[in-house]
Design brief:
Number of strands: 8
Oligomer: single chain
Largest sheet: 4 strands, antiparallel
Strand order of the largest sheet: 2-3-1-4
Order of helices and strands: EHEEHEHHEEHEEH
Radius of gyration: 19 Å
Shape: elongated
Structural class: alpha+beta
């Protein structure tokens, strides 16, 4: 069996998720985990951890799901050995935050947690007061000047602008912002809520 993470848009109505599960079963697969990523406007975005007998069945599975009225596949990716339960991982990040005391360490735990939980391209903590980068990670991490300007512009009216590939959270009691970018896949509601929760603990 090969594990995949399947992200699907579904009508937010009873039985819709069961129809997807039956299509997974029809190609010989098994649903072994479910996370609700977002809900609203009569639709839900769910992330399913599935096992398939062979990776060649992915295209067939996607075709099967598209046969369900109102269902769309947003993404399919191999789960890999590093796939974790989001709730457990979030608790572990919270425990790491509680265990560190220095501001510099807390900034880096926030960045590491954001990278881990959101599978981000990059993440950073920016001090908006001094317009400085406190900690950052990721191969495509922008420079300090760009990050500071972006965060200040995106939060100019007091709230972070809703940009699909970016999420920004206030870090409690510090005047910092935790910013994340993931270009491959939009950052959804539950993921933004996790980021806000991390910021509240920061």
């Amino acid at each position: 069996m090969t594990a995949f993470v399947l992200r699907v848009w579904l009508p937010d109505r009873p039985g819709a998720l069961g129809l997807v599960a039956s299509r997974v079963g029809a190609v010989g697969g098994d649903v072994v985990g479910i996370d609700i990523i977002d809900r609203g406007a009569g639709r839900a975005v769910d992330e399913l951890l599935i096992n398939l007998p062979d990776e060649s069945l992915v295209d067939l599975l996607v075709s099967e799901i598209h046969e369900i009225d109102g269902a769309d596949v947003e993404d399919v990716r191999p789960a890999g050995r590093d796939h974790e339960d989001l709730a457990v991982a979030a608790l572990q990040v919270a425990a790491e935050l509680a265990a560190v005391e220095s501001p510099a360490q807390r900034a880096c735990v926030l960045v590491g947690g954001a990278m881990r939980l959101l599978h981000a391209d990059w993440a950073a903590v920016v001090d908006t007061g001094s317009a400085s980068l406190l900690c950052g990670d990721g191969d495509e991490l922008p420079n300090e000047a760009w990050l500071s300007g972006f965060v200040l512009g995106a939060t100019a009216d007091g709230d972070a602008a809703e940009l699909d590939e970016f999420a920004i959270a206030e870090v409690a009691d510090h005047g910092w912002k935790l910013v994340v970018c993931r270009s491959r896949l939009p950052v959804r509601g539950r993921e933004r809520a996790m980021l806000d929760g991390m910021g509240a603990l920061g």
